[in-house]
Design a protein that fits this description.
With 419 residues, the protein is an alpha+beta fold. It folds into 2 domains: 157 residues, no CATH class; 235 residues, no CATH class. The protein is 21% helix and 40% strand. Strands 7, 9, 10, 16, 17, 18, 19, 20, 21, 22, 24 and 25 form a 12-stranded mixed sheet that branches. Strands 5, 6, 8 and 13 form a 4-stranded antiparallel sheet that branches. A hairpin with a 2-residue loop joins strand 18 and strand 19. Helix 4 packs antiparallel against helix 5.
Length: 419
């Protein structure tokens, strides 16, 4: 691999900013004006902007939406969803101040919409948690919370607590009493054109969805293992929306809002594998970032990374885009929560794929989520790549996961036999 190829590979998720601290008060003032103004907005529009703004490393794991979002991109999206001139003017103040504060900024192609400064905007679950909510935020970000109105705005967004333009005290509202991004929708049972499908064929799955605040819709495919009374999660993927929105190079789905629509999906019995050219293994590709097309979406494969030189192991994720691996991220603990660091693979290092299982109780309800080790692939001269193969014969639970703007999921399934 040439130096240019290596740089292209490593720069995908990179962000780098140089800041002129002397001009930081300009940005703080613009942020305070914007925070105060957002009290006048429909908070659903703000929740939409939070959901689709360019996000960065989720140190709290993959079970909650990323909480660190790009400030400039969020302001632009808020103005877009609010749709009024006053909000556009306030957002322009933010962008103008950023241009004075940010001396230089670079970001990789997988982080479009980056403007140089991120801000903490948790969902309601994180906001209500003692370790990630305002009780800890006002301590960790003490100077910022006392100098800015951002914590005041979060208190308004999740608690309805109004504030004045000169309110500079740290806000400590411990629990969200309102959730603007929560979905108020219903999802009908799935109807299928057939309950059996053979490799090479397809069936149509249909459901009717009514309501508002739909953020993302995912496809779910799980193999029913009656012997262990569990479900092997074989695949999750984005369901593409009828139309796609974009802002600053970031793409997001646009679903009908506050109305009833029919979702029809052509289901093929496929599963993903990853391969190094000689070894391969079934892998669950978790959706990470929506794209204008499936080729531009980013997916993560969880597993365990082993360094050949030392034998050290580390919880890790492989990030894929347009079929190929472009980044490996390692974590200190046993989960993908916490701060991540990039791993540069050396020949002989290995990655063991993690399988995800949904363990069921006697009533058929998911009682816990467990993981087991799958196949191991060795890093060598060929880049890792994903492939599609036909699902093996068996009974599957197939359906949709409808997520609202706050990250809450409403599932609906049907049984399909592959043979």
């Amino acid at each position: 691999m040439s130096a240019q190829q290596l740089a292209t590979q490593l720069e995908q998720n990179i962000t780098l900013t140089a800041v002129n601290l002397e001009n930081l008060p300009l940005l703080l003032n613009a942020l305070n004006q914007f925070s105060y103004h957002m009290q006048s907005l429909d908070q659903r529009a703000v929740a939409q902007a939070r959901t689709y703004a360019q996000s960065y490393s989720s140190i709290f794991g993959t079970n909650v939406p990323p909480s660190f979002i790009d400030l400039g991109h969020f302001a632009a999206l808020t103005a877009k969803y609010a749709g009024d001139s006053a909000t556009r003017q306030q957002a322009n103040y933010i962008l103008s101040a950023l241009s004075r504060v940010v001396v230089a900024e670079k970001h990789g192609p997988s982080k479009p919409g980056s403007t140089g400064i991120a801000i903490y905007f948790p969902n309601s679950q994180l906001y209500s948690n003692a370790s990630t909510g305002m009780a800890s935020y006002s301590v960790i970000a003490n100077s910022f919370s006392r100098a800015s109105l951002w914590d005041d705005f979060l208190g308004y967004h999740y608690g309805g607590r109004q504030f004045t333009a000169n309110a500079m005290e740290a806000v400590n509202i411990s629990r969200a009493s309102q959730i603007p991004g929560a979905g108020t929708f219903s999802v009908s049972d799935i109807s299928a054109t057939a309950n059996r499908v053979a490799p090479g064929d397809a069936i149509t799955l249909s459901t009717t969805i009514t309501g508002e605040n739909i953020g993302f819709i995912y496809l779910f495919t799980g193999l029913v293992d009656t012997a262990s009374n569990s479900i092997f999660v074989a695949d999750t993927d984005y369901v593409e929306s009828p139309s796609t929105g974009t802002e600053g190079g970031v793409y997001y789905p646009i679903w009908p809002d506050a109305q009833t629509f029919r979702l029809n999906f052509e289901f093929e019995p496929l599963v993903f594998t990853i391969t190094n050219g000689t070894e391969s293994g079934i892998a669950l590709l978790n959706p990470v970032s929506y794209g204008a097309s499936s080729e531009q979406a980013v997916y993560a494969v969880d597993g365990t990374y082993t360094f050949s030189e030392t034998g050290e192991t580390r919880t890790a994720q492989l990030l894929f885009k347009d079929e190929y691996l472009f980044q490996v991220m390692g974590f200190k603990g046993t989960t993908t929560a916490g701060d991540a660091s990039e791993i540069t693979p050396n020949p002989g290092d290995t990655f063991t794929i993690s399988y995800k299982w949904l363990d069921l109780d006697a009533n058929g309800t998911v009682s816990k989520i467990s993981n087991s080790d799958g196949d191991t692939l060795t890093f060598g001269s060929q880049p890792f790549q994903w492939k599609q193969e036909w699902l093996p014969s068996g009974d599957y639970l197939v359906g949709f996961l409808v997520a609202d703007l706050d990250g809450n999921v409403t599932p609906v399934y049907t049984k399909v036999t592959v043979q």
